[in-house]
Structure formats: structure tokens, C-alpha cells
């Protein structure tokens, strides 16, 4: 027998958990499905200091608090990787690798995943010096030299985290200005351990066959080539949306993000999208939480008006 819910939320990041809280508190039956532990990208973040109510909180700690809120009104949680969704009009079918569910409302909060640089050495030295998660792997580079590639919030925030561990952090950015928020930039510029290589693209990650020993860099202004030595390379060059199972619904834009209206409704009635997976300007925990609350409430209204 297929399990039935009023609301299924795919992805238990901050947006998904907030949707689950709102919908279950409105007395709907709710299932959150995630392929890993609840919290999403919050789990890869050390200090979160722009989520109201906490001067600073560890990502995994905030994840746990949100999970407790989400499940406190009866929302359930299931592990599973969603393979496909079928829109049957008044209900939707959700297929995971090991289960099949029916739901009146679907809320998609699958977020995004790190983008790869796509240069030689990146795959070869994955897990042997190349990393996409400073919180996970930073401790391996205590008192060693590391490179961070990118100039956005993630690159600069994680450079600041790594500077507490590493002996030197070199940020390599393709332009001469950072994209990161000014408050993070100011801190990074004031940090003696953080150095910048501007207007430069990493063209190869090099190693000794076993571990990373540096990168090759091409200067975009004068086309000069150089090398930077390091034991680790952390790559933070943005994200791509995790929307493959939803492509057949016709709700994604040309880059794969999901546009919604202010009610978080997608093109398909009864399917909402929230958080980082949505086509939007500001991808933050606070904005994901806002999206989640709106979708959870509108899920209730959708069910009321379709019953
Ligand atoms: P992002 O904002 O998209 O920044 C990506 C960075 O990588 C940019 O500096 C970009 O350069 C560079 N880049 C992109 N492709 C590249 C390539 N092929 N080679 C070299 N460099 C490349 O991504 P993000 O920093 O991961 O942040 C994602 C979202 O999460 C953003 O909305 C961000 O605000 C949010 N976030 C917020 C916080 C916070 O509030 N504390 C922390 C982390 C993330 P250009 O600048 O030249 O485009």
C-alpha cells in the first residue's frame, strides 16, 4: 500500500524543516524526505552569525534545533533519494529509491550542490587535498598551507574558518573584487594569514601522485602562468540546483532553478518550491526559513480550497 500524506517536503534543510513545522502545526500529515541527515548545507557551516536569535551558532546545532521544531508537531522524517515525481492533478506520486508515496501537496526544498572547477587534478586528488567543505576537512590542514578558490560568501567565510587552523590561506579569485558581503571582506583583509591572488584562474591542481602540492594559475590580465604551493585546495565557486528529478514537470528555468510566485507556488498547482533551489536573489538560511513558512501555510490553504 502506498503511504499517503497531506504534504511531502523533499529536502530537510532550513526551508524544508520550516515548511514541515508550519504544515504539521496546521494539523496536516507531513513527511520530510532527505537523502542524508537533516540540516542540509547548514551542516557544512561552522559559525552561523546571521540567523536572528543567535549571536553565533554551529551549523549542526542550528540544524538540530530546527529538526526538533519541525518534528515537534508530528512531522515525520524518512531517508530516501527521490527519483521521480508524477503530477496526477489532485495528488502527486513521489518515488524514492526504496519507497513510493502519495501526497496532496509537494514542497521542493532540495537546495543546491557545489559546483566543480572542472580542471585537471580536481577528480584525481578528491579527498587527497581537494575539498569542498572546510568544516569537514579543515582539521586535516592544521598548520599547513591551503588555497581557497572563489570570491563569494562561501569562499571568504570558509577562508576565515580555515585561517584558525592553517598556517596560511591563499584565496585565488578570477577578478580583482570579491563578491562576498563587505563584513566578511573586511575581516578577511584584516586577517594576516589570508593572502589574495587576484585576476587569476586555477588551471590545474597538482600533486605528487598521492597528495596535493599546489595549483597552476593563469593571470587573466597578462596571461602569465605561475604556481601556488599548498597542501590543500578548497573550492567554493558557487552552486548548481538539485532539480534533476523535477525536470519532467516543466517547472525549472533554463539553468535548472525553480521559479515561483510570492506564495512559493510553481507552475504546477500543488507543487511549491522553497529555499536555495528557487530562482531568487538572496540564498540565506533566513530567506529559506521565510520561504518555508510561506509554503507551509499555503499548503494548508491549498488543501482547504481543494477539498
Ligand atoms: P556565489 O555567490 O555564486 O560565488 C561564487 C564565487 O565563485 C564567485 O566569486 C565567482 O566569481 C566564483 N566563480 C564562479 N565560477 C567560477 C569558476 N569557474 N572559476 C573560478 N571562480 C568561479 O557562491 P557561494 O559563495 O557558494 O554562495 C552561494 C549562495 O549562498 C550566495 O547567495 C551566498 O550569498 C550564500 N551564502 C551566504 C553566506 C552568509 O550569509 N554568511 C555564506 C555562504 C553562502 P565572480 O564573483 O567573478 O562571479
TrEMBL record:
Substrates-to-products reaction catalysed: [thioredoxin]-dithiol + NADP(+) = [thioredoxin]-disulfide + NADPH + H(+)
A Pfam family per the record: Pyr_redox_2
Cofactor requirement: FAD
Annotated cofactor note: Binds 1 FAD per subunit.
Enzyme class of the recorded protein, top EC level: oxidoreductase
Example of a GO MF term: thioredoxin-disulfide reductase (NADPH) activity
UniProt-listed InterPro entries: FAD/NAD-bd_sf, FAD/NAD-binding_dom, Ferredoxin-NADP_redctase_2, Pyr_nucl-diS_OxRdtase_2_AS, Thioredox_Rdtase
FAD/NAD(P)-binding domain sequence ranges: 5-292
Enzyme Commission number: 1.8.1.9
Keywords attached to this entry: Disulfide bond, FAD, Flavoprotein, NADP, Oxidoreductase, Redox-active center
UniProt family annotation: Belongs to the class-II pyridine nucleotide-disulfide oxidoreductase family.
Name this protein carries in UniProt: Thioredoxin reductase
Amino acid at each position: 500500500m502506498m503511504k499517503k500524506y497531506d504534504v511531502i517536503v523533499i529536502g530537510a534543510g532550513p526551508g524544508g524543516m520550516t515548511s514541515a513545522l508550519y504544515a504539521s502545526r496546521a494539523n496536516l500529515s507531513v513527511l520530510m524526505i532527505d537523502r542524508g541527515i537533516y540540516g542540509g548545507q547548514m551542516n557544512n557551516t561552522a559559525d552561523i552569525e546571521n540567523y536572528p536569535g543567535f549571536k553565533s551558532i554551529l551549523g549542526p546545532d542550528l540544524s538540530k534545533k530546527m529538526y526538533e521544531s519541525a518534528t515537534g508537531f508530528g512531522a515525520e522524517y524518512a531517508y530516501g533519494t527521490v527519483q521521480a515525481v508524477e503530477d496526477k492533478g489532485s495528488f502527486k506520486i513521489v518515488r524514492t529509491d526504496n519507497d513510493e508515496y502519495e501526497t496532496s501537496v509537494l514542497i521542493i526544498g532540495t537546495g543546491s550542490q557545489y559546483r566543480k572547477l572542472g580542471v585537471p587534478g580536481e577528480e584525481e586528488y578528491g579527498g587527497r587535498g581537494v575539498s569542498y567543505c572546510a568544516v569537514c576537512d579543515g582539521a586535516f590542514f592544521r598548520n599547513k598551507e591551503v588555497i581557497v578558490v572563489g570570491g563569494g560568501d562561501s569562499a571568504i567565510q570558509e577562508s576565515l574558518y580555515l585561517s584558525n587552523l592553517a598556517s596560511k590561506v591563499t584565496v585565488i579569485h578570477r577578478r580583482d573584487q570579491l563578491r562576498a558581503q563587505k563584513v566578511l571582506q573586511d575581516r578577511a583583509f584584516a586577517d594576516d594569514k589570508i593572502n589574495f591572488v587576484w585576476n587569476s584562474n586555477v588551471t590545474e591542481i597538482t600533486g605528487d601522485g598521492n597528495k596535493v602540492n599546489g595549483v597552476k594559475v593563469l593571470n587573466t590580465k597578462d596571461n602569465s602562468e605561475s604556481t601556488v604551493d599548498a597542501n590543500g585546495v578548497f573550492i567554493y565557486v558557487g552552486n548548481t540546483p538539485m532539480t534533476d528529478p523535477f525536470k519532467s514537470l516543466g517547472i525549472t528555468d533554463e539553468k535548472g532553478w525553480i521559479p515561483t510566485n510570492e506564495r512559493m507556488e510553481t507552475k504546477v498547482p500543488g507543487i511549491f518550491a522553497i529555499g536555495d533551489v528557487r530562482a531568487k536573489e538572496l540564498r540565506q538560511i533566513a530567506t529559506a526559513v521565510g520561504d518555508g513558512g510561506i509554503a507551509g501555510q499555503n499548503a494548508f490553504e491549498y488543501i482547504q480550497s481543494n477539498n
